[in-house]
Structures are given as structure tokens and as C-alpha cells.
Amino acid sequence: MTGSLGFGLLWFVVILAMIPLALWLLKRTPYGAAMSGTGAASRVVSTLPMGPHQRLVTVEVGQGDEKRWLVLGVTPQSINTLHTLSPVEAPPAAVQPETPFATLLKKVRDARR
Question: Domain residue spans in the chain?
């Protein structure tokens, strides 16, 4: 009886020791890297809302010399590639045109001063 209990306990310890080993090995395979998200070489560079449910998104994909920027049109129904660019050092600053209301408000504030 004592021998089988010791043998069962030994197998339990071996299986517990194999769990971290299996996770470590899985992390180093392409399948494990894709599941953990560490192998993905993409990032969102900028987002510009175009309407209530539409956005213009610039995404950087690839690594090294293969790196590209994709300009995507994003709606609830689809994602379309609008343009492909070579990456630049800093994303271009989004320039918002002055709206007629903003112009009117500025004139009123300047008139009060």
C-alpha cells in the first residue's frame, strides 16, 4: 500500500513539474507566440474619426525592412486598405480645419476684449 502511494505521489510531482516546462516550450513555437500576441508585429499609428461609425486608421505592420504603414478605412461592416506607405519617423499631425462656429466664437471673444 505504501509503495503504490509513493509511486502515485511521484507521478503527481512529475506531472506538476511538466506543466511549466510545456508552457515554456509552447511559448517558443510559432503557434504559441501567435496565441500570446508577442509575435504580432503591428501597432496603431493614428486614428481619425470620420463619422459616428467610420474611422481612418493608420497601422504599422511588419518588422525591419518589411515594415509598412497601411491606411485603413474602418466601418462596422468592413475594413478596407486605402493606401500603403513607407513608415516615417513620426506620424503626421492631424490638422483640423477651423469650423465656421469656431471662427465666429473667436471673433466674439476678440470683440469682448
Answer: 1-39, 41-88
